[in-house]
Amino acid sequence: MPVWIANLYDDLLLWLPVFRAEFLALNWFAIVLIWLSLFIITGYFIKPLRITKKSTEIEHRADLLQMLASGVLLAFLNGLLYLIIPQVILIWLWLTITPFALGLTTGILQFAFFREHRILENSLAIFSGNFYIEPGQTWLSGITRAVSRHVWEQPQTAIGHAAGQLLNFGGWISKVVFIEGITVMQGRIPFANGVAFGSFVLVTTRFSTRDDGNDITDKNSYLSVLIRHELGHSLQSRCCGPAYLYKYGIPSAMTQGWTEKDAEFRSDRHLLVDFGIVPIFSSYEKTYKKANAGIATYFLLMTASIAGLAWNGTPGLLGAYLLCAGIIATLNLGKSNSRIF
């Protein structure tokens, strides 16, 4: 056996008893209670919209058992990750709580002095998007979506929530709606017409002549078409998880057309198969196939992240992750996606 493997094995034997003691010492009751409370409270605050028939109608809410199961699972996973990579969990908490607190405080002060409640309502709605389980899912599918948003679809979930809260704090968000698993934040977005960070979507209303963005079945509405396009990017995030920002996000920002074609294909396909809604995009061919991240992408991310964590803890993990991200993004900055990465 090589010396480095023997040393790693010895370190693991020393670490396991420490990990077990720290695992048992965590206040699991408080962690579970917090997650359950977040899902239950926000679950009854969220009023998702239908996307078939009249999509301005309110859809029924998620099942209570889905909320409870999702809360328990995420409490366990986050407690476990806190023991392994505590700095990453603390960064995630800071990215989530600080922008929310800023928007919430501003909203409360605005309401107290001016009786204007838009920023307050938007801040609560954006925060609730972290725990949004779309109606109509099977019991297992709903739980999977909720857990995926916080585990598989990081860091885009944290970034999307933070960006939405900060724009709302600045007064740029005029409306927040929940449609088909995504939190759509509408307003005069200063840096783009539309951006998707996982299940958090920002869309501009600058070019919309009427408040028609709720009905995504309306193909004559600029805002509705924009939301459908960004839904495709959200579906890319659901599929490719941690590779999303670098496989699709950066190439999309650099105006590589294949990312937009792929997003529009996914959106059309999803809405047609699940809801019978007629496709509206023409950027892709009839024989088009999804451009998914290759196995090499996840192998590179996993091996480099484990090596970085073993070498220098959380800083090594983050460094390895960013290095891999740069490699993946560079290989996809072409007219077509990388079939390997």
Topology:
Blueprint: H1 3-25, H2 28-45, H3 64-84, H4 86-114, H5 118-128, H6 139-150, H7 156-169, E1 173-179, E2 182-187, E3 194-197, E4 200-204, H8 222-240, H9 244-253, H10 257-275, H11 295-331
Parallel strand pairs: 2-4
Antiparallel strand pairs: 1-2, 3-4
- Shape call: globular
**What series of H and E elements makes up the topology?**
HHHHHHHEEEEHHHH
Q: Give the end-to-end Cα distance, rounded to a whole number of Å.
A: 33 Å
Strand segment count: 4
Largest sheet: 4 strands, mixed
**Based on helices, strands and strand pairing, what is the structural class?**
alpha+beta
Q: In which range does the helix fraction lie?
A: 55-70%
What distinguishing features does this structure have?
341 residues; alpha+beta; 6% strand; globular
Written overview of the protein:
- The chain is of the alpha+beta class.
- The chain has one domain (31-287).
- Helix content is 62%, strand content 6%.
- The protein is built from eleven helices and four strands, in the order αααααααββββαααα.
- It has helices spanning 3-25, 28-45, 64-84, 86-114, 118-128, 139-150, 156-169, 222-240, 244-253, 257-275, 295-331; strands at residues 173-179, 182-187, 194-197, 200-204.
- Strands 1-2-4-3 form a four-stranded mixed beta sheet, sandwiched between helices.
- The chain is globular and about 70 Å long.
- Mean pLDDT is 84; it is low at 53-57.
In short:
The chain has 341 residues and is α+β, with helices and mostly antiparallel strands.
